[in-house]
Amino acid sequence: MRTSFITDSLQQLADQGRYRSLREVSSSQGREIVLNGQRVLNFCSNNYLGLADDERIKQAAIKAIESDGFGSGASRLVCGNMSAHEALENELAALKKTESCLVFSSGYMANTGVISALVGRDDIVFSDKLNHASIVDGIILSRAQMKRYTHLDMQSLEDGLKAAPAHHKKLIVTDSVFSMDGDVAPLKEIVGLARRYDAMVMVDEAHGFGVLGPNGAGLVEELGLTDEIDVHMGTLSKAAGCFGAYVCGTKQLREYLINHSRSFIYTTAMPPALAQAAREAIAIIKSEPQLRKNLKTNVEYLRASLKELVDATNSLQTPIIPIILKSDERALQASRKLLEAGVFVQAIRPPTVPPNTARLRVTLMATHTTADIDQLIEALRKI
Ligand SMILES: *Cc1c(COP(=O)(O)O)cnc(C)c1O
C-alpha cells in the first residue's frame, strides 16, 4: 500500500507509451556502438566531434591518474582545488575570451548552481519555453519568478520585460543551440533587449561549444557577442567528449560564484584526471578546425538529402536534426524499425519535448562517413 503509487505510476506511463528504459552499450562511444549486443551506427549521441574515445584524451587521463591519483578528496574550497582545475579554467577562459572561468561537476549542476546564486525571491527570470530542464530547475531552486517566453519570440520576451517592475533584478537565460530542435537563439536581439531593459544575459552553450565559432567557442563567438553576455555556460560532456561544465565571465563573477553557488561549494571537486582530459579536448578543439568542417559537411549532406523531412528554416546548420512524428507510438515504432536496419536513433517523447511533438532526434558526428549517412537515409526512406 505504502508503495503502490510506484506500480500505478509505471503502469500509467506504459499505458501512455511513455515508459522509458535503459539500453546497455558495451563498446566505447564511437560512430558505431554495440547496443544490447547488436553492432549499430550511432546517430543519437552528443559526441559531435567523436572525442569521447579519442586516443589523446585517453592518454591524458591515464597520465594524470598516474601522477595525481584518481579522487580529489574534498570540495574545491576545502582542499580539493588542484593544479589541473586551475589550468583547465585558465585555458577555458582563454578560449572563450573572458576574464575568468569556474568549472562545475556537470552542466546540470552549473545551471542550477549559477541561476540560484544570481537571482532570488524578488527577482524575475525570462526563460525560453524550450530551455533545457536544468535551467528550469535552477530557476525553481532560486525561488525567483519564472517568465517563460514563446520559443525564439522576441516580442513575447519584450512584453515580459516591459511589464516587469524596474526595481527587480532581471535575468534572461537561453540555450544557444536548442537541444531537441537544433535551432539557435537570436542572441543579438536578446542582447539588445537586455540593454534596453537592464537585464543580465546568461547563455547555455551545451550544444554550441566545440561545434560553432571559428575557434569552437560556441554560438556567441560565431556571432561576435562575447563581451555582451554576462554569463557563458557550457558543458564538457558533449562535443568535448569528457564530463563537467564551465561558467565563464568576469573575475568578479567567478569570485561571486565561489562564495554563493551551492552546487559548487557543497560538492567534491572533479577528479583531476577529468580536468586533464578536458584540457586535452580543448587543445584539440582549438587546433583542429577540420573536425568542425567535417561535421558541417556531414550536416549539409544529410540536411540536403532529407529536405522533405526536416525544417530548412534554420540557417545555422547545427548537428541536431529532429524528424517530428507527433505521436509517441509512431516515434517509438520508427526508432525500432531503424534499429532493425542497424541504425540507432533514439525516440524523444514528452515530457522531454512538448506534447504531440514526439520525434526522432538525429545527431551527426564529425567521424560519420558518407556511407554511414547513406545507410541512415536509406533506412529512413524505408520507414
Ligand atoms: C546536456 C545539457 C545540459 C546538462 O549538461 P550535463 O553536463 O550533461 O549535466 C545543460 N544544458 C543543456 C542545453 C544541455 O543540453
Describe the secondary structure blueprint for this structure.
Blueprint: H1 4-16, E1 32-35, E2 38-42, H2 55-68, H3 76-80, H4 83-96, E3 100-104, H5 107-118, E4 124-128, H6 133-142, E5 145-149, H7 154-163, E6 170-175, H8 187-196, E7 200-204, H9 219-222, E8 231-235, E9 245-249, H10 251-260, H11 262-265, H12 272-287, H13 289-305, E10 320-326, H14 328-340, E11 343-344, E12 347-348, E13 358-363, H15 370-382
Parallel strand pairs: 2-11, 4-5, 4-6, 6-7, 7-8
Antiparallel strand pairs: 1-2, 3-9, 8-9, 10-13, 12-13
The structure holds pyridoxal-5'-phosphate (PLP).
Name the ligand types.
pyridoxal-5'-phosphate
- Percent of residues in beta strands? 15-25%
Average pLDDT figure: 96
Biggest β-sheet strands, sense, barrel: 7 strands, mixed
H-E order: HEEHHHEHEHEHEHEHEEHHHHEHEEEH
Terminus-to-terminus distance: 44 Å
Radius of gyration, taken over Cα atoms and rounded to an integer in Å: 21 Å
- Overall body shape: globular
Question: What is the number of strand segments?
Answer: 13
Structural class based on helices, strands and sheet pairing? alpha/beta
- Low-pLDDT windows of residues: none
- Structure annotation, total helices: 15
Output the strand order for the largest sheet.
3-9-8-7-6-4-5
The helicity comes to: 40-55%
